[in-house]
Amino acid sequence: MANIWSTETWAILIAACALIIIGVLTGNWFLACAVTLGSYIAWLYRRLLKLEHWIRQGTKASQVYDDSGFVGIIIRQLYQQKKAQNKSKRRTKRLLRRLHQNILALPDATVLLDGNLQIEWCNEPARYLLNLRSPQDLGYKLGNLIRDQELATYLNDPDSREYIEIVSPIDPAVVLQIKIAAFAGNQFLLIARNVSDQKKFQESLKNFVANASHELKSPLTVIAGHLEMLEKEDNLSESGQRSLEIAERQTKRMKELIEGLLLLSQVEGRRLDLGEGENISITELMVNVITALEKYDNQDRIELEHPSGLYLLGVNTEIESICINLIENAIKYTTPGTPIKVRWEVSPSGEYIFSVEDQGPGIEADEIPRITKRYYRGARSRVEAPGSGLGLAIVKHAVNKHGATFRIESEPGRGSCFRVFFPSYRCQQEARKSARIIKLSNY
User: Fold this and answer.
1) Is the pLDDT at 427 greater than 80, yes or no?
2) Which of 34, 66, 192, 398 has the fewest C-beta atoms lying within 10 Å of its C-beta?
3) pTM above the 0.85 mark?
4) Which domains does the chain have, with CATH numbers?
């Protein structure tokens, strides 16, 4: 820095000396000032023109030059920035090259869509899974190349569902699971995966569980019948009576487990098509749900709130199962006398929201993702309660089958809230009426 200002100082001193010499020799100080200042300005202008030319050429490292004055500071700063920029570009190119190679190696079809759902890029698996070719199909709308109503609905509202499953446009025997994620504001990444083998395995497992459970029902019914006959015997000893009670309790538990497995095998697997199902009156549905809950002594603490005239497109028995299981859990795992709020609401986007809110012991945050797994019983407070551990697993699969979303909010010591969001395409509504609150005892 000292050398730079030394150069500029020497230039000014030389100009001053030239001014004095010319003024003394000519006696015309105005001419001396004009010549000296003009020469100095011309020298500076020449240096700036050279700098401007170098910048206009792109500040190429091969054309960099040295300047011992203040212009040299600008040159060195620009050179360092250009050097860092080139290094960053090379690093970015290497990362993009590796990312591109990794994406190409993926077995899943990957498609990049713009805000208008036009194809910007696709990898090789998209050719044999979605029948998309690059570069021939770039710039075309995905919906125009793949004619599928469910895909079109999903493309218009990717947030409505976690994923969809469609038949491959190339091979009807191939089932594709498609997921769309938004990024960079108005772009979308579509990933399609071949889940045919997984679906076949799930179907085989489902059939096995259903067949095994069905076959177990007959001998279990016979056992229950004989136990009922033994219960009428008067000459049973005290130990025999105790053994009979244990056998009856375990038989009842086994029956509930088999019924749960049969229902689980029914709800898991294939999702319902867009127009598939029956129109279910929410009012009639809740009457049936309430009837099923009459076996509980403290059911009158449940408050039911829902607008009139709501209809849901789906499978009635499975929607009933969702409601019954969630309310039963609230009854079993909360303190008697505490309120349980059961609501049906209509969101601004047209979704139906079914919620069950209690003031029970709550659920630990790390436990929430696991409680929807089959046979998971959770904390000690829930392990002591009766049940098969299939209730929330049934709810989860029934929710997925209807294209809905299941959310659990809970805080230890402050209760829990279970919500099911049914997509708007499954919801129908008559003229809206005011909500009403009903006590179960009114039915």
Assistant:
1) yes
2) 66
3) no
4) 2-101 (no CATH), 106-194 (3.30.450.20), 198-267 (1.10.287), 278-442 (3.30.565.10)
